[in-house]
Fold this sequence. Notes:
Blueprint: H1 2-28, E1 33-40, E2 43-46, E3 52-53, E4 59-63, E5 66-70, E6 74-79, E7 84-87, E8 92-98, E9 101-108, E10 111-113
Antiparallel strand pairs: 1-4, 1-6, 2-3, 2-5, 5-8, 6-7, 7-10, 8-9
Amino acid sequence: MKTRVLSILIIIFFMVTNSLVMIPSAAAENVKVLGQITMEGDVFIRSSNNTWERPINRTYPLIQASALKTAKGKAALMFKDGSRAIISPQTQAMIDGSPNDYVVTIDKGMLFFN
């Protein structure tokens, strides 16, 4: 009897953990890539836990709802539609939308389109 109960608990455990592992991958399928970010100097990206992180790589995908903050650095944004923008030092910005219809919101600092 104990073996059967233990077996059932193990099966339930694996079913629950496997369903939890699948949730992030399903959510990731809905994220839209707007372009690419190339960073130089101190540039930070807001993570999913709402902290500012310095990316390991200097090139990073620009996804919807990206929040960027520059200190003594700058970031070049290359959008899929061919548009380009430069985020200057001491700037905080949010980029959202879809590849052909995006919005850039500046909280502070400057951003230049070219």
